[in-house]
Known about the structure:
Blueprint: E1 4-10, E2 15-21, E3 27-33, H1 43-53, H2 55-72, E4 80-87, H3 89-96, H4 101-104, H5 108-113, E5 124-127, E6 141-144, H6 154-163, E7 172-176, E8 180-187, E9 190-197, E10 217-224, E11 227-233, E12 239-245, E13 253-254, E14 262-263, H7 265-278, E15 281-282, E16 285-286, E17 292-294, E18 300-302, H8 303-327, E19 336-340, H9 341-346, H10 349-355, E20 364-369, H11 371-381, H12 386-396, H13 407-422, H14 426-435, E21 449-452, E22 466-469, E23 475-478, H15 488-492, E24 498-503, E25 507-513, H16 524-528
Parallel strand pairs: 1-4, 3-22, 4-6, 7-19, 10-14, 19-20, 20-21
Antiparallel strand pairs: 1-2, 2-3, 5-6, 7-8, 8-9, 10-11, 11-12, 12-13, 15-16, 17-18, 23-25, 24-25
Helix pairs in contact: 1-2, 6-11, 7-10, 8-13, 13-14
Amino acid sequence: MKKLGVALDLGTSGLRGQVIDLDTGQILKTAITARHPLPGANVMDHLNYVIDAGMNTAHRILLDAVNQVLDALGACGPEMARLAVCGNPIQLSLFEGIEVRDLAYAGKRKKEAMGITAPDRNGRLVLAGRIEGLNIPATAEVVIPPAVAHEIGADALAMMLKSGMLERQEMALVTDYGTNAEMALKIGGHIITGSCAAGPALEGQHIQSGMLAGPGAISDINPSGKNYTVSVLNHSMLSETVVESDLITGIAQRVTAGSIKGITGTGVIALIDQANSSGYIQLPGIKTSDHLLHLTDDVRFSEKDLSEAGKAIGAIRAGYIALSKAAGIEVEQIEVAYMAGASGTYVDAIKAQRIGLVPPSVRKVYQIGNTSLALAGDLVLKPEGLEELKKLAVSLRATHCMFGDYEPFSQAYLLELAYWDEGMPRDLYLRFSRKQGLSPLPEFSQKAEVVKWHKRDIPELGTYGLTVIERVGLERRHAFSGCLGCGVCTTVCPEKALSLEASDKEGFCLLLRFDLCNGTACLRCERACPVKVYRFADLGVN
Length: 542
């Protein structure tokens, strides 16, 4: 009987999996989810939900989504022999169903007072029967790689290993661009790691017309005379020019056939770069008559979107400025940048360099794809590689920079917020940077040499191609006693995650889609209820 293995990337914004023939090493099929199944759009939202709803609830929601991916891959039967997962410590802990509160609180005394003990995250190989709710044979092996420290997990190990930066001599920065942006700075034989909650805008979330990277997502914008060509990901996850737009009216001339559903993070970066160059963006505003940028009639970009994107870009910039401070170097000394993840693959690297997503002075940029899924694939085929990962994780623990209590990061990020949200002039930004002892962000002066390893973040989709799971995770119906059925809560929901249904027995029921919900970071629904009977926390899992 053929033996199958599955590589699974548990990302903060969604899941990506591949089924592999263990005898031949051939990738058979790829499946991705359009969203993460837990309410919220970043790691802090997910942690807040776990604390409010409980680990059992959060674990069940995530495992339900994992099972959806496994089912889409056709990998739930007796031929399924091994599953390898990769992700940050929060996602891997949710997968296992182990304590995560130690990741939610930074203070040692607070954790001691709450009786919180950090679980073992040193990596392990267990049988599937040990993980409750996992829908594969109980005797199948599950490979769980180690974390480095706190918020730096196996996905960070993946980007360091798969980039090859550990063997190179240049001062190099590697970053996995996403909602939780992991980064590592290498100076000689010394490596310093860090991680920042960049926010969901780099993945196309919390953007009015935003979406994760998938078919129909705007991925790039380029000038074409007085207008701009708009490129979209097709069903093979390759970018192709679909329409030509003027950004002001949204009147678009179709170039090729292809559907447009929204804009992903790389499209947002390209739009900001191009609109900034043309003068349509003058921070903190958009200088058009309606303060919007129109890519098509249905896809628009607002000043609120610009603010969300600025927070994400600012967090990345503050991150490598803080790492440079910790290493005792200037930002302009960083020679090479590696860009990992979907956003790091599809983005135009020069546009990213111009707006500072990579240090503007780097001379070479490598775009290296989804390293987290790639490492999971390595572990599926060679689970013995887990031992080497454990050794690497131990060696890096002494050089982790915890941004949450590192003052230079806070100082740099406050300056970034002033720049993006208040339009602080660059000369003032640089003056305050120097005053606080930070390395100034260099000005873009020369295009880096760009080496793109893959056309898409998942280089090989497999014999049977790609499946996109649009609806992921659970839905929950609940009747609140005293509900008027006014629908105010559904109207204020920014993601349209909540709907109202009439019920003969219960009067009115509210239906919540967990994958669309922004979770405890939002709660507009709860605040809007005129009779105060709606409670988000009551919409748990039965």
